[in-house]
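Moderator note: this is an archived Q&A kept for reference. The question asked for a predicted structure of one protein chain; the sequence and the answer are reproduced below.
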Amino acid sequence: MAKAVKKKNNNKGFSKYIKWFWILFISGVAFVALIFLSASWGLFGELPPYEYLENPQTNLASQIISSDGELLGKFYLEDNRTDVKYEDLPDNLVNALIATEDARFHDHSGIDARGTLRAFFFLGTRGGASTISQQLARQLFVGVRSRNKIETIKQKIKEWVLAIRLERSYTKEEIISMYFNIYDFGNNADGIRSAARIYFGKEPKDLKTEESAVLVGMFKNSSLFNPLRREEMVKNRRNTVLGQMAKYGYITEEEKDSLQALKMDINYNPENHREGLATYFRMYLQRFMKDWIEKNPKPAMKGERDKWNIYLDGLKIYTTIDSKMQANAEEAVYEHMKNLQREFFNQNTPDKNPTAPFLDLTPEETNRIMERAMRTSERWRKMKAAGKTEKEIRESFTKKAEMTVFDWNSETKEKDTVMTPLDSIRYYKTFLRAAMMSMEPQTGHVKAWVGGIDYKHFQYDNVIQGARQAGSTFKPFVYAAAIDQLRLSPCETFPDTQYCIEAGKHGNIEPWCPDNSDGKFSGKDMTLKYALANSVNSVTAQLIDKVGPKSVVSIVKNLGLTRDILEVPAIALGTPEFSVYEMVGAYGAFANQGVYVKPVMVTRIEDKNGTVLYEYVPETKDVLSKEVSYAMIDLMKGVTQGGSGTRLRHSYNKNNSVYKKIITGYPYELTNPIAGKTGTTQNQSDGWFMGVVPNLVTGVWVGGEERSVHFKSITYGQGASMALPIWGLYMKKNYANEDLGVSKDDFEKPENMSIVTDCDKFEKDNKKDMHLEDDLDDLDF
């Protein structure tokens, strides 16, 4: 009987423990639920509204996309981020992330209870408790973890709540892609697309397994596991990720061992505004977009900016630039200008020219140039803004300092040196500048744009910002006016003799009697084709006298050269100043059967969702007839057949000293029909070449920043030596890639041409006419 009582008391005691267990358990659950409710009510800090969860605002870089679908660059402030969709992420990248960061990602709803309990009981020594969803919540909404323990607990609870909400709002795939897109991988690599391009030079979809492992390894701490600074540490972390992938069956043990044995293969491709492809064009585009934004307000939406922002809104800007032709253009400029600059340095050393790099200037004129450059420099502007006195500013220009300057001979095009800021100004003045633009004449689509020799050090864009004297590249406009008004044939002849236009005629104040470039006159009759090919000034003077400067200016303005031009005969020799952009547009009309098409660089703008915000409408104008434009093309073909552009037909000639020193190794050997015109201004300050094939018009200019920076002789300073080689190199590279579709065909000739371009036929017809006149004179009426 006593034993039975004892057993009853034991059961009563056990029941008591059970009761307390459930009380504690339910209380714990209630406490946890209360914590979550408190967090969701905002008691631990404000949580983002559901609307924000459904459309989290992240700063997205705007993309600049070429006509062939390549990414030319981006506009961004601090976040160089471009979103990638889940379907564009390779399996090896997703698997590496899940295996390393959240192995049960597909089995939980934002919080991994098992991982949380493990972290709680083992104090985090056997792995963290944060799921991918929690980590995403922290990066999107919570921010950097506080060092205060109480604040850390509050943040953790907010992460739990937000992770659950994210799981309700998004699919697992969307969470994965958001996580990859939001993370900062360091070195300006915001998001997976930037990281793949910057560290491996490829798109995310092309990442190999070992490359994906490197990037996933960086999620632990991108600053610590920086591939550029701690290669061995990053390699070990990569191998840990590969080990996790093997552990969870994403790769085999054999694959793991093989991949872990590989060396690190980082292909660093920095992305910034001063490096990469089409830097000058990108800066032009920045100005274009600023103007477009001012004229196109953003649709009003709650919580969003009222203006588009190219640095934050993730716009897609579709351009006409062809990435391959752009690369060809930049390579051509680099190859020729490096050699040309070497020869310029040889001729302008201080022992040969005490005022180097300036020629034909007095000390006072040199000082004025240096003074102007000093006052317009960035150093002067910043010091002035900082409240420094003029005396302090001037003194700073004479103190030596360590600096990095441009250098053609370095692989990086830079060298470290010590010099005064004033000396650095003079140093930069010694470099010849270049510009080229290439356009499809039928559409106006600009295919290549090179505004200078190196954007990082020379940021002035000579394609569109600079205007220089056109020289003989202006003469075709005079010839076009003459052929249009007088119906002249390219085979008409004019005498090469001194020709004067008297004072008072065509607005002349005094008589105008231009010399030829060599100061000589042959006295012979020459065809218009020969005269243009050899830039004979005496013939051009006769033409502008016949048609008048006013008619030439009228044609020029209809061809997009809208600057103020004096209506005087001297313009015939190219005294007006134009940009490469304007000249290419104007020459495009000759190749487009007389129709001027305004150059276009942007075809479409979309927002981040693909909504079209802008589409361009071509601007065209009929300027010349088909017959006149074809006659002009025929005239300019003579430039490359027997005139100043003939060297395009030749290969390298060892006996030609100019070729030897400037363009060694540049065999052009172009045999297809080419229309063109060289141009050289007074004292060889500017060298031009305008080259035309049926579907591509390209203009090249070379010269110093100052007009006093030039070659002494026309041998090196003429357009055929300074600018034409860039065109030849560029076109040879284009023709080497048949996919670019640059034409080698002849220009289309209009039917029933009334202007005779066949000079043999023209001569026979003239002889017949002369015989007929003689016969008529002999008749007795």
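Archived answer notes: The chain has a mean pLDDT of 85.
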